[in-house]
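In response to the reviewer comment on reproducibility (Comment 2.3), we provide here a single inverse folding case reported in full, input and output, so that an independent group could reproduce the run without further information from us. The structure tokens appear first.
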């Protein structure tokens, strides 16, 4: 693995010096030819490239969208007291927060899903601390961490990961730490499913006066050990970001929240008021119901575990070793010959599956593929049938 941090300033865009920003191709748009190949199979493509939920959310949650009457007025930008209370109660219970680490509604703010927060945070932090200009993020990770830095005119500096795809905070250059607006951590991780040492990361952030932002959107699908949040190690200097997209199959509702450091929560909440960020009222009302029901999450956990095992077996029959993740619903598998694009094309040709080449998540992932086991069981069975046929 890479041993030192290297800067990737402007690497996410197609700009040249002196030119305006030119958005690069959206990663998943690069799969169009592979999708066309997969779609030629009877029954069509089985798209496992994006982690979008396909299962039904609870009927009780769906009903709220038509009955909340929350569509009539502007919702509070920070989130309704009901939503913030539900979020605090859920995370306190789910992750065992108690005493000084327990959340209250005052420590929670609503988001319009989590991606807008991920992509927009560097901009707001740069306004807060103009003397800093660097976003640190895992070298193998969700592309929006780096893109958020680019969109804010900041340096995007990847932090190396070890052989288990875990963050190596010991490899962060002190000069980059001195310029850092924030350090992103994602546990369970996307794409590799690792579980970082959140206590050590929080301690590093406080020692270097760098806010640590922990993206915990896959916390409900922690397979090795109990669910963990960075907030259990104190709130000072840290934020936890959560979403109902994966947990409750509500990606289309755009409902999430962030919580943690009181001063930072207040600052971001006030800035976002001025910028007009408001999670839709019906989504907040539905979120209250979803956060209060854990039974549907338990059912979803069972579905994803079964699908991980199904796809692991499919890949094994094709000669691809895919270890089960410590968390999340992705398989992160190395191409036998190191050519991830060739393996993606082979899967599309032979069984009609669409997967993501690992370079989408950082150069170190170029020899891997990511498989999102989100499709219903009958669609995954189609891959098994094609393979056996």
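Designed residues, in position order:
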């Amino acid at each position: 693995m890479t041993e030192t941090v290297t800067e990737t300033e402007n690497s996410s865009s197609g700009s040249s010096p002196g030119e305006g920003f030119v958005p690069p191709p959206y990663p998943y748009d690069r799969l169009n030819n592979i999708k066309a190949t997969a779609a030629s199979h009877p029954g069509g493509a089985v798209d496992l490239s994006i982690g979008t939920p396909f299962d039904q959310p609870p009927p009780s949650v769906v009903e709220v969208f038509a009955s909340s009457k929350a569509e009539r007025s502007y919702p509070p930008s920070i989130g309704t007291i009901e939503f913030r209370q539900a979020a605090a109660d859920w995370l306190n219970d789910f992750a065992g927060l108690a005493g000084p680490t327990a959340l209250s509604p005052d420590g929670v703010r609503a988001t319009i899903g989590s991606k807008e927060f991920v992509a927009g945070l560097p901009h707001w932090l740069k306004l807060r601390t103009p003397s800093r200009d660097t976003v640190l993020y895992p070298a193998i990770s969700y592309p929006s961490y780096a893109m958020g830095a680019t969109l804010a005119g900041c340096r995007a500096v990847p932090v190396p990961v070890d052989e288990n795809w875990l963050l190596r905070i010991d490899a962060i250059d002190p000069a980059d730490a001195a310029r850092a607006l924030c350090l992103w951590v994602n546990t369970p991780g996307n794409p590799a499913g690792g579980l970082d040492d959140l206590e050590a990361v929080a301690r590093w952030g406080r020692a270097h006066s760098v806010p640590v932002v922990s993206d915990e959107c896959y916390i409900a699908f922690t397979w090795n050990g109990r669910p963990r949040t960075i907030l259990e190690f104190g709130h000072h200097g840290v934020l936890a970001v959560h979403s109902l997209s994966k947990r409750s199959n509500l990606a289309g509702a755009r409902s999430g929240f962030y919580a943690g450091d009181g001063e930072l929560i207040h600052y971001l909440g006030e800035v976002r008021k001025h910028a007009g960020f408001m999670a839709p009222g019906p989504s907040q009302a539905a979120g209250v119901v979803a956060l209060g029901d854990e039974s549907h999450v338990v059912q979803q956990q069972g579905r994803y575990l079964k699908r991980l095992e199904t796809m692991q077996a499919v890949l094994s029959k094709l000669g691809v070793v895919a270890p089960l993740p410590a968390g999340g619903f992705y398989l992160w598998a190395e191409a036998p010959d190191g050519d991830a694009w060739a393996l993606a094309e082979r899967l599309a040709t032979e069984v009609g599956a669409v997967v993501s080449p690992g370079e989408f998540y950082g150069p170190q992932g170029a020899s891997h593929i990511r498989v999102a086991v989100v499709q219903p069981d009958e669609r995954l069975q189609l891959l098994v049938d094609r393979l056996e046929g």
